[in-house]
Amino acid sequence: MKALDELIFDNRFARLGDAFSTSVLPDPIAEPRLVVASEAAMNLLDLDPAETFSPTFAELFSGHKLWSEAEPRAMVYSGHQFGSYTPRLGDGRGLLLGEVVNSRGEHWDLHLKGAGQTPYSRMGDGRAVLRSSIREFLASEALHALGIPTTRALCVVGSDSVVWRETQERAAMLMRLAPSHVRYGHFEYFYYTRQPEQQKILAEHVLNEHFPHCLGAAEPYLAMFRDIVERNAELTAKWQAYGFCHGVMNTDNMSILGITFDYGPFAFLDDFDANFICNHSDDQGRYSFSNQVPIAHWNLSALAQALTPFISVEALREALGLFLPLYEAHYLDLMRRRLGFTQAEEEDKPLIERLLQLMQNSGVDYSQFFRRLGDQAAELAVQRLRDDFVDIKGFDTWGQDYSARVEREGNTDDAARTARMHAVNPLYVLRNYLAQNAIDAAQRGDYEEVRRLHTVLIRPFDAQPGMEAYAERPPEWGKHLEISCSS
Ligand code: AMP
Ligand code: MG
After folding, report:
1. With bands split at pLDDT 50, 70 and 90, how would you rate the model's confidence at 484?
2. Strands 244-245 and 94-101
3. Given the CA of residue 252, which atom of ligand 1 is nearest to it?
4. Catalytic: which of 109, 227, 252, 365?
C-alpha cells in the first residue's frame, strides 16, 4: 500500500508530444472537500485507503497540488456528434495528469475532469458540476460491479466555486481512471486533418501499449480492429442485457478499449421500454435504448474509415461484419443466464423477445423482474409476477413456456437456480431517482447518502440488510426525471 506521494508515473501519452496534447495546468476549485472516494479504485493505484483522511487528498484531486512527476495535458480529438462530424473537440475541461504504474505493472491514466479551461474549451468554462460528477462516479463503480467494462472513478471533490448551467451550481472535480483515454475521435482527428505521420504514431502507440497481443498477428492493425469490434459487441450486449442507456454515443465518447466512457445523461431502465431516450436533447432518438446496437456498429464504421491508411477496406468491412453476430451471441448468452438457463436452445431468442414485448406493453420494472424470477421455483415465481402484467393471459402462456423450458434443463435444484440467477441479476441498480436523492443531499452539503449508495451499488447482487429501500421500484416522481445534459 502506498501513500499519495509514493505513486510512480510513466507518462507515455504525454511523451508523444505536442501534436497529440497540450500542456495545461489545472485551475483549482475553492475550498475543496472530499465528497466520496472508491476504495476499489484506489486499490488499482495501490493507494492506502487511509490516504482519504489526509488533507493532501482533496488538494491533489481539486487542482491545488500536483505530483512532481505529473505532466497535465489536454488531449486533442474530434468526432461524430449525433451523426455529424465536428472537426475539433479535445479535452475542454479534463486533464490527463499522467499515467500511474501499479505493482502489477499496469498503467492507469489519471484524468481530472472539471480541471478548468484548455485550448479545447471553446465557449465552455472548463468546469464540471457536482451533480454530473456524482452521477459519473456512481455509474463507473456500479457498472464495474455489474461486470460491465468501464472507466473507473477514484473520487469526487466538491467545492464552493460557483458555475452557471441552467441555474447556479457548485463546481466539482472527478478523478477518472482508465488504462487509456484514447477515443475513436483521436483517430478521426488525425485522419481528417491529414496528418499521416501523427496518425501512424498514434496507431503505433495504441497497438504497442494497449493491444500488444495483436503484435504477433500477420496484420497487427487488422487484429487490433477486430479486437475493438469484439470488445464493443460484448460491451453493447452487456448494456442491452442490463438495461443501460448511454445517451451520448458520439464517436468522441467511444473508448478505443471498448469500455463505457464519458458518462452524460445515462440511465438504467426502470420500466422496460425499448424506445427509451435518456438524453432530453436527443429529439430524434438517435441514442434510444434499442438504437444503441446499430449505433455501436455505425460508430465502428466511423473508426474503420479513419483506419483506412492502415487496413484494407475489404478487411475492415469483413471485421465490421463480425459485430452483429458477435453482439447477438453475447446478448443471448447473458439473457439466458439472466433467465437461469445453463444450456442453449434454438427457441430461446423468441422466448426472450416475447418476454420483452410483454414487459414493454405493461411497463414492467426491468431489473426487478429478473431478480424476482429467481427468488422462487420457476412456476411459483411466474405465478407471483403475473399481476404485474396487463396482458395476464399472454404472460401466463409465456410463464408456461418458461417453466417448461426450465424443466427441460433437467436440473431440479431450486436453490442452485436461485443462487445462479441472483449472481447475475442485480438487486440494486443505479436508478436515476436514487442518484437524484444522493445529489440533492450532497448539494445541501450532506455526503452521507452518496457514500451509502456507493457502498450498496458495489455489491449489486448481495441482499444487504437495512438497504431494502434501494431495491424498490422508483416512486412516481422518480420515473420521469429530466436529466439535464449540461454537466
Ligand atoms: P461531452 O458532452 O461531455 O462529451 O463534451 C463534448 C465536448 O465538449 C468535449 O470536447 C468536452 O471537453 C467539451 N466540454 C463539455 N463541457 C465543457 C465545459 N464545461 N467547458 C469546456 N468544455 C466542455
Ligand atoms: Mg465527451
Report:
1. confident
2. unpaired
3. 4
4. 252
Mutate to test the pocket of ligand 1, among 86, 121, 188 (most ligand atoms within 8 A of CB): 121
Give every CB contact of residue 393 below 8 A, 6+ residues apart in sequence: none
The closest alpha carbon to 408, from 346, 355, 330, 350, belongs to: 346
Q: Indicate the angle between helix axes 323-338 and 348-362, nearest 10 degrees.
A: 70
pLDDT digits (tens, 9 = 90+) for 36-81: 999 999 999 999 999 999 999 999 999 999 999 999 999 999 999 9
In this structure, the number of other CB atoms found within 10 A of the CB of residue 401 comes to 16
Given a cut of 90, whether residue 481 has pLDDT beyond it is no
- Res 411 pLDDT > 90: no
Does the annotation count 252 as an active-site position?
yes
pLDDT band at 180 (very low <50, low <70, confident <90, very high): very high
130: which 3 cell numbers? 457536482
Pocket of ligand 1 contains residue 264 by CB under 6 Å = yes
Q: How far is the C-alpha of 176 from the C-alpha of 237, rounded, in Å?
A: 24
Task: Tell me the three state secondary structure of residue 98.
Answer: strand
Q: Is 301 left (phi over 0), alpha (psi -120 to 50) or beta?
A: alpha
Q: Is 391 in the pocket of ligand 1 (CB under 6 A)?
A: no
Using the predicted structure, report yes or no on whether residue 412 has a pLDDT greater than 90.
Answer: no
What residue owns the CA closest to ligand 1's atom 6?
89
pLDDT at position 351? 98
**Closest ligand relative to 77 C-alpha:** 1
